[in-house]
């Protein structure tokens, strides 16, 4: 299988963590797509992923799967023993709910802030920017951090008692927050303690070492 990504991207980090959790690194060839040069918006790449986003998984039969949740679902189901997306109907429902909240309230909000209220990927890529919208999304992300702090005050992981795709999504959000220098509010002690634990988890700690072969 191939994964098209950018090694330090927060969205690719989600899939890299999932790969490590499932011990699938040896089955993947990484193909680097340079975000700063806008390679994800070229006609060649758009033929692989209409949305022009990273990462994208290419299967041996030529099928392309985009979107982190969809890729994680596929990888988690390969061995018939899902550990990241839930086993029971209840687990699946809660994990998907919390992962979607992490996308909407944290990760995607920071992405909008990055692309609209900072230089983003530069003038050659950021054709349109709306700074007011970007700053509103920054504030939404800070509110999201406070929400997840409250969640983690009462349970060890984002979706309950076990590490899951929901934790991976929040990790991706905090990776992005660090990249755009958006600090977690000081009062969010539970979120900060949880993130410190996550950074010691091998799949999170080593995801940057998964480099493209060339």
Notes on the protein architecture:
The chain is α+β, with helices and mostly antiparallel strands and 214 residues long. 51% of the residues lie in helices and 7% in strands. The chain has eight helices and four strands. Strands 2-1-3-4 form a four-stranded mixed sheet, with helices on one face. Strand 1, helix 1 and strand 2 form a beta-alpha-beta unit. Helix 1 runs antiparallel to helix 6. The longest helix has 29 residues. The model has no long low-confidence stretch (mean pLDDT 95).
Number of strands: 4
The order of strands across the largest sheet is 2-1-3-4
pLDDT averaged over residues: 95
Structural class, by secondary structure, is alpha+beta
H-E string: EHEHEEHHHHHH
What separation lies between the terminal Cα atoms?
16 Å
User: How much of the residues is beta strand, in percent?
Assistant: 5-15%
Tell me the number of helical segments per DSSP (H or I, 4 or more residues long): 8
Biggest beta sheet attributes? 4 strands, mixed
How much helix is in the residues? 40-55%
Keywords:
8 helices, alpha+beta, 214 residues
Give the gist of this structure.
Helices cover 51% and strands 7% of the residues. It has 214 residues and is of the alpha+beta class. α1 links the parallel β1 (2-5) and β2.
SSE order and pairing:
Blueprint (H helix, E strand, L loop, with lengths): L1 E4 L4 H12 L7 E4 L10 H4 L9 E3 L5 E3 L1 H10 L11 H29 L13 H24 L10 H15 L9 H11 L2 H4 L9
Parallel strand pairs: 1-2
Antiparallel strand pairs: 1-3, 3-4
Helix pairs in contact: 1-3, 1-6, 4-5, 4-6, 5-7
């Amino acid at each position: 299988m191939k994964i098209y990504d950018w090694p330090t991207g927060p969205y690719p980090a989600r899939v890299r963590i999932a790969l490590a959790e499932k011990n699938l690194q040896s089955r993947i060839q990484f193909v680097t797509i340079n975000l700063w040069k806008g390679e994800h918006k070229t006609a060649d790449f758009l033929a692989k992923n209409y949305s022009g986003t990273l990462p994208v998984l290419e299967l041996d039969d030529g099928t392309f799967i985009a979107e982190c949740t969809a890729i994680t679902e596929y990888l988690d189901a390969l061995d018939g023993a899902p550990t990241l997306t839930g086993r029971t109907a209840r687990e699946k429902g809660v994990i998907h709910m919390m992962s979607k909240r992490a996308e909407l309230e944290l990760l995607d909000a920071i992405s909008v802030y990055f692309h609209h209220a900072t230089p983003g990927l530069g003038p050659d890529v950021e054709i349109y920017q709306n700074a007011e919208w970007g700053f509103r999304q920054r504030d939404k992300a800070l509110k999201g951090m406070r929400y997840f702090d409250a969640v983690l005050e009462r349970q060890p992981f984002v979706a309950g008692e076990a590490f899951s795709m929901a934790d991976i999504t929040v990790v991706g959000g905090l990776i992005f927050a660090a990249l755009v220098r958006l600090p977690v509010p000081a009062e969010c002690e539970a979120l900060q303690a949880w993130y410190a634990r996550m950074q010691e988890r091998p799949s999170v700690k080593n995801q940057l070492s998964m480099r493209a072969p060339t």
